[in-house]
Design goal:
Elements (H helix, E strand, L loop, with lengths): L1 H24 L11 E2 L8 E2 L6 E14 L22 E17 L2 E12 L12 E10 L2 E6 L8 H4 L16 E11 L2 E8 L6 E3 L37 E10 L2 E12 L17 E13 L8 E10 L13 E5 L2 E5 L4 E3 L6 E2 L1 E14 L2 E13 L2 H10 L21 E15 L2 E13 L24 E2 L2 E13 L3
Parallel strand pairs: 10-17, 16-23
Antiparallel strand pairs: 1-2, 2-3, 3-4, 3-24, 4-5, 5-6, 6-7, 7-8, 8-9, 9-11, 11-12, 12-13, 13-14, 14-19, 15-16, 17-18, 19-20, 20-21, 21-22, 22-24
Length: 495
């Protein structure tokens, strides 16, 4: 037995020795490589790019929405030349989706950041094309207080999309959704205060040469037939000359636990083309400078409910009305049967041999967001905007509209009631269910009312031919209201 036991132990020892020797000849297994490493410097979702000190975050979102009463466009809204006929598309569908990339790294002078958002944004009434699908609303770099590229204008404060789905259905200065091209520097002053100065792509509505014919049912070129349409810009740019200098924008801002506030201003060059199609020895009105000033306020109310807040912004402008009407940025017109309301939106008006008469506008936006429960919240919002023309500009417009019966290009007819001053007010509410942190459903109802300009009325109290919407039928001036009802489903890729 002892011999058998010794043989077994010897055999086992030999087997172990042989195995160990073979194992020594095998390659050593490499340690796992950490290909993806979390970057905690800039918040959740960032990762180090392998082999670099750069952190990147990939995100995005997708959305479906449908609106009744939008006049064929969820951007331009129900008063964009709305003839309200059988050709009007009241029901509009839209699908949007963006992929975002946020790359950051540290330098000796602070964080260097690059950000881009590209995707699809449709506005579908059954006539979609490829050109109506691609969208890029962010592409900017930030470094050492400098921001340059497509982002939000530094003039803006009130966030229309934060309170309403149909931000294009009423006026505001907010450029946040489509973005705007800027180049600015922000100085951090401490205690939540900052100051910014920026050169930005100019914001234009239209500039009207009253020597031509203004048809308030159409968005056209108002320069006596001399077209100055700029590629990529809405045709209602009208009689504006080319961009020679961007808008100069500045703000002073504070952000703290209680909320925040901002005062801001913008200087805007108003430069026209020529007086007439014949150019007349290059004759043109002298350039003028318009401006916009505003103030914004945000107040948080956690004592009412966690997440509750109030926001508001007031604006005043002369010759720079797109700081009030970022969208819809067009003449406002809506017909309803035999009646019609209209308002001409322009930065200024001139006729042959005169200077540019700058247009005045002012307005206010306000909203309150209330959380009924952690996953259910509702916004209540409203606003008022008014546009007015001085006496000279009103005469030029009345004449161009064909309403100045019995007057001249520089005078009104005796007893004339023609006035191009107009206003709009709106009110709405949006109810949203946050199903998860990254997925929500919501519904909204919005009502706005166009307080029409008052043209010279013809026989029977009807507006003359310039406000005809087709078929030779005259329309009677009357204020017009509009309801929009919307549904939205939205999913974020990251919280």
């Amino acid at each position: 037995m002892k011999m058998v036991k010794s043989l077994l132990l010897g055999s086992a020892a030999g087997l172990v020795a042989v195995t160990a020797g073979q194992a020594a000849d095998l390659p050593v297994k490499a340690k796992p490589v950490e290909y993806v490493k979390v970057c905690s410097l800039y918040g959740a979702g960032f990762y180090y790019m392998p082999g670099t000190d750069m952190c990147i975050k990939i995100g995005g979102w997708v959305r479906y929405e449908v609106t009744e009463g939008a006049n064929g466009s969820l951007t331009w809204g129900p008063y964009n030349g709305n003839a309200n006929t059988r050709a009007t598309s009241n029901l509009v569908f839209r699908a949007r989706g963006y992929i975002t990339a946020d790359a950051r790294e540290q330098t000796a002078y602070g964080t260097a950041r690059g950000y881009i958002a590209v995707g699809a944004s449709t506005n579908d009434v059954g006539l979609n094309t490829a050109a109506n699908q691609f969208s890029a609303n962010r592409a900017f770099v930030q470094w050492a207080g400098i921001t340059a590229g497509i982002t939000q204008s530094f003039y803006d404060y009130y966030s229309a999309p934060a309170a309403a789905y149909r931000g294009g259905g009423f006026p505001s200065s907010d450029s946040g959704d489509p973005g705007w091209t800027v180049a600015g520097y922000t100085a951090q002053l401490g205690n939540g205060m900052s100051a910014t100065v920026s050169m930005e792509t100019r914001r234009t509505t239209q500039l009207i040469n009253g020597s031509g014919t203004v048809n308030t049912n159409t968005v056209g070129t108002y320069n006596g037939g001399y077209s100055t349409t700029i590629a990529g810009v809405s045709a209602n740019n009208g009689a504006y000359g080319g961009q020679q200098v961007g808008d100069i924008v500045g703000n002073l801002r504070v952000d703290q636990a209680w909320g925040g506030a901002q005062i801001m201003g913008a200087a805007h060059e108003v430069n026209a083309g020529y007086y007439s199609n014949a150019v007349l020895n290059n004759a043109h009105p002298s350039d003028a400078w318009g401006f916009a000033v505003g103030a914004g306020l945000r107040l948080n109310f956690p004592s009412v409910a966690q997440g509750d807040y109030f926001q508001s912004q007031v604006n005043y402008s002369q010759g720079a009305l797109r700081y009030l009407f970022f969208t819809p940025n067009s003449d406002w017109v809506k017909a309803n049967g035999s009646s019609e309301a209209y308002g001409v939106l322009s930065d200024g008006v001139f006729i042959n041999g005169t200077s540019i008469e700058l247009t005045t506008g002012w307005g206010v936006n306000a909203s309150y967001e209330h959380y009924w429960a952690p996953q259910w919240h509702e916004s209540f919002y409203g606003g008022y905007y008014a546009v007015s023309y001085d006496s000279n500009a009103n005469i030029y417009l009345c004449n161009a509209e064909g309403q100045n019966v019995g007057g001249t290009a520089t005078t009104l007819a005796a007893g004339s009631a023609c006035s191009n001053n107009w206003s709009v007010w709106y009110a709405g509410s949006r109810l949203q269910w946050d199903v998860t942190k990254t997925f929500y459903l919501g519904v909204e109802a919005l009502y706005d009312n166009l307080q029409s300009a008052t043209p010279e009325l013809g026989a029977g109290g009807f507006i003359g031919a310039p406000l005809t919407t087709g078929g030779g039928a005259f329309k009677q001036e009357s204020n017009q209201g509009n309801w929009m009802v919307s549904f939205r489903a939205h999913k974020d890729f990251l919280p």
